Amino acid sequence: MRDEPTPASTSVRRWTAADLRELAWLFLRLGVTAFGGPAAHIAMMQDEVVRRRRWLSEERFLDLLGATNLIPGPNSTEMAIHIGYERARGPGLAVAGICFIVPAMLITGALGWAYVRFGTLPTATWLLYGIKPVMIAVVVRAIGALAPRAARTTPLRLLGATAAVLAWLGVNELAVLLGAGAASAALARLGGGPGAPSARPPAQDSRPPAPDGERAGGRAVALAPWLPGFAAAGAVTLPGLFWVFFKTGAVLFGSGYVLLAFLRADLVERLGWMTEAQLVDAIAVGQVTPGPVFTTATFVGYVLAGPAGALVATLGIFLPAFFFVAVSGPLVPRLRRSPVAGAVLDGVNVASLALMLVVTAQLGRASLIDLPTALLAAASALLLFRFKINTTWLIALGGALGWAIHRAGLAG
């Protein structure tokens, strides 16, 4: 099923059971194959829902990406939830988000069982050795497709370049996003800037109008792990475990390293439920398995309280994402219709793309470590740009080549 985006002038498209089945299959597959972190996951989603299925226009995808970056929680999971809502409203929101999370939850849960049983983690360096170069090519292709829409004017291109430099220098990503949005709005008020009404037509909306009274959720960065809690040092309880991860999912944004800092403050220092070594192992599992990094919670929950702990921790950390998207998602088309708010969204969009570019450069430095990985990245880019091969097959090929290269002793 490959529907064209519904023009704004036509009747509202109504979702069907077939839409839910297609959403479920797509995000289950992505949950199994989406390695490489949020930037790579979002690039794979762009390939599937914009280029292949044409569910969304590039402009709408960019707007959702910008909105995702302004709310707390796991970005790629929230992007999946946004796409589900665009496709099939409330049921689609639940189906897409759950199906993206469940494969990673099952994989990390199984690794949690192995860790408890054997006291160590299995090694799979060969898998990431082959997959990471492929993911770099996937992200670069997505950035190349989105950049002309995001940086369509000279002021927006300058904003994007500035955002990239600031992100590279280590400026907080939320400050970069909000600064770009404010600068874009200021230029729009002066007239002829990035957000001028003539600069871009409203993005096409294929959803029914959102009900009145909905409000966007704000980002509560300053609260961090110092929110009052119901967890206490000593014995691990399921309510306490849920609260620790619910609180984290409600206020955290950033990389796995930020997640490490949040969990360390609670689980190691305040509660004493884990050791430093156990927490580092948990973060490593989230980084090397497919799907959202936040399924680190599943591993931690299993180690601390078995299968019930794994389910409670997973529910706690992801539940806020569903809430934030459900509340903020319907406001995106309304923001686009306002000249000033649309200009803010334009600035956030181009800054979001700049952040993806910086993350990709950092990933490249860590992944292209020898001649085989460089050649694999180049070959992947050729297959993507010239032959438009499906990213899922390309990732599988990368994993197989990683195994073959390690077996042959050619890895650097």
TrEMBL record:
<feature type="transmembrane region" description="Helical">
    <location>
        <begin position="283"/>
        <end position="304"/>
    </location>
</feature>
<protein>
    <submittedName>
        <fullName>Chromate transporter</fullName>
    </submittedName>
</protein>
<dbReference type="InterPro" id="IPR003370">
    <property type="entry name" value="Chromate_transpt"/>
</dbReference>
<keyword id="KW-1003">Cell membrane</keyword>
<dbReference type="GO" id="GO:0015109">
    <property type="term" value="F:chromate transmembrane transporter activity"/>
</dbReference>
<feature type="transmembrane region" description="Helical">
    <location>
        <begin position="392"/>
        <end position="410"/>
    </location>
</feature>
<keyword id="KW-0472">Membrane</keyword>
<feature type="transmembrane region" description="Helical">
    <location>
        <begin position="241"/>
        <end position="263"/>
    </location>
</feature>
<feature type="transmembrane region" description="Helical">
    <location>
        <begin position="366"/>
        <end position="385"/>
    </location>
</feature>
<feature type="transmembrane region" description="Helical">
    <location>
        <begin position="310"/>
        <end position="332"/>
    </location>
</feature>
<dbReference type="InterPro" id="IPR014047">
    <property type="entry name" value="Chr_Tranpt_l_chain"/>
</dbReference>
<feature type="transmembrane region" description="Helical">
    <location>
        <begin position="158"/>
        <end position="188"/>
    </location>
</feature>
<keyword id="KW-1133">Transmembrane helix</keyword>
<dbReference type="Pfam" id="PF02417">
    <property type="entry name" value="Chromate_transp"/>
</dbReference>
<feature type="transmembrane region" description="Helical">
    <location>
        <begin position="126"/>
        <end position="146"/>
    </location>
</feature>
<feature type="region of interest" description="Disordered">
    <location>
        <begin position="193"/>
        <end position="217"/>
    </location>
</feature>
<comment type="similarity">
    <text>Belongs to the chromate ion transporter (CHR) (TC 2.A.51) family.</text>
</comment>
<feature type="transmembrane region" description="Helical">
    <location>
        <begin position="23"/>
        <end position="44"/>
    </location>
</feature>
<feature type="transmembrane region" description="Helical">
    <location>
        <begin position="93"/>
        <end position="114"/>
    </location>
</feature>
<dbReference type="GO" id="GO:0005886">
    <property type="term" value="C:plasma membrane"/>
</dbReference>
<feature type="transmembrane region" description="Helical">
    <location>
        <begin position="339"/>
        <end position="360"/>
    </location>
</feature>
<keyword id="KW-0812">Transmembrane</keyword>
